[in-house]
Amino acid sequence: MRLTSLRSRLVVMITLPLTLLSVALGVWRYQYDSDTAKTLSDRTLFSTAIAISRDTATLSGDFISEATRDIITNAVGGEVFYHVAEAGGAHLTGYAYPPADLDYGALEQGEPIYAQAQYRGEAVRVVALKSSALFDGRRQSYIVTVWQSMESRSALQTELALRTIALFFVLISVLGIVVWFAVRRGLRPLIKIERELSRRSANDLTPITATVPAELDETIRLLNDLLLQLEQSLEQQHIFVSDAAHQLRNPAAAVHALVSTLAEARTEDDRRVRLKELRKAARQGLRVSQQLLSLERIDSLGALERAERVDLNEIVFSVCQDMAPDIMKEGVDFEFIQSQKPLFCFVDQVAIGEALRNLIDNACKHGGENLSRVSVETFQHQELVCLRVKDNGASLTPKDAERVFSRFGQLQPAAGSGLGLSIAVSAAEKNGGSVKIDEVAEGASITLSLPILN
Predict the structure, then answer these.
(1) Angle, helices 6-58/66-73, rounded to nearest 10 degrees
(2) CA distance linking residue 357 with residue 289, whole number of Å
(3) Of 111, 299, 359, 427, which cross-links 389 as Cys (Cβ 3.0–4.6 Å)?
């Protein structure tokens, strides 16, 4: 599945939390503005009630001052209505019919009460204030009632909310644009790497030299290491293919030549000899092909990709049982010395079996004319399980390891391809083990060691 661009993902990751935060702040701000609008409206009503009460006391209840009219006319949230009446109910000034839902009996001197009521079929906010003053030489109580339409108050709340929304919208929009271009600028080093790679050919595996921020240093280092490993792998593959073609050319040419001469055999004995040589050349070619396939298979293994818990004795016994008849037909004594206890390890048993086959085959092919004995032994050494292949043929010492362990490497020309020991080394290393040449007085001894499985 194709992911969105890195820049889009970064912008979303940055702006989305900020947007959610802004929404939360917007909700809080709306609630705050609503409370502010309510408080402001109530204070306006209360201030108006106090001003009307003062004018009533000053002007004996008949009129209100010009300043108070201005307050009523320019009140926050819309027009304000008022009614002033004696405590007994006689109308003094203002609108004749105040909202009827108030409990005037609960009023205390100087203590306002607020309520929701209906006035001419419309919801209103009401404040009532009880005061007293001298009228005609006697002190008399009166009640000032002031009210305002709730629709006006809602309009004020809506206006404040819209201002808040507009502010946050502009803020998020500007922030999104800034983040978009900031991320684009921050990703320029990746664009440089992309351009550098796009200009390369498939054969250009040189390290990346583009200047990058400190956060990408490790990524570039790992990428350059990967390019180096790939270059080395391709070089080794090129060498391997070249050497393999050379090794296969000889048996292929031999088979072709023997097939051509087989038809020219004059006698049955001559034909039988040439047929035997043809079979030998064919077997040699087949063996080289099998070794090349084995080497390629082992090299392609992941770290213990097909590993399983197995007793090394069982692998060695199976291989020795299979190879012993052919070895003894050649007049060579063959012996398997098995460990008295299980040697459990965690390995790819097919790869280890192929390694052992090549070690035995190497002993037989490169042992020389004096070869008369080959032995295989299994044992435990410290935290390792080991198998050892010994012969009394041609001498092989540890100083020869670099040469004979390399692919197609041989000390002396022989019938083999020079791949056997290389296969054994690769199989051991892929399974966490190693192969070494032992120091012996006679012949050759090679030990393959693997980690023990406790």
Answers:
(1) 150
(2) 15
(3) 359
Give residue 169's Cα distance to chain centre. Answer: 34
Terminal alpha carbon distance of the chain: 43
Q: For residue 205, give both structure tokens.
A: 């595996």
Contact 239, 299 (CB under 8 A): no
Burial 320-357 (b: 16+ CB within 10 A, else e): beebbeebeeeebebebebbeeebebebbbebbbbbbb
Sorted by where each starts, the structural domains of the chain and their CATH numbers stand as 6-169 (3.30.450), 308-451 (3.30.565.10)
Q: Which residues pair with 309 in a beta bridge?
A: 346
Report the sign of the C-alpha dihedral through residues 323, 328, 333, 337, in that order.
positive
- How far apart CA 379 and CA 343 sit, in angstroms, is 8
* Nearest of 107, 106, 109, 94 to residue 147 by alpha carbon: 94
DSSP string, 159-201: HHHHHHHHHHHHHHHHHHHHHHHHHHHHTHHHHHHHHHHHT--
Residue type for position 302: G
Instruction: Give me the tens of pLDDT residue by residue for the chain, a chain 454 residues long.
Output: 455 566 677 777 777 887 888 788 878 877 887 787 778 778 888 888 888 888 777 765 555 666 666 666 665 556 778 888 887 777 777 887 888 767 777 778 878 888 888 888 888 888 888 888 776 667 778 888 888 888 777 777 777 778 877 887 888 888 878 887 877 777 777 777 777 777 777 777 788 777 777 777 788 788 888 888 887 777 766 666 665 665 556 566 666 666 667 666 667 777 777 777 777 666 666 666 665 666 566 665 554 567 789 999 999 999 999 989 989 988 899 999 999 999 999 988 888 888 898 889 888 888 888 889 999 999 999 899 999 999 998 888 888 777 777 765 555 555 455 566 877 888 888 888 999 989 988 889 999 999 998 7
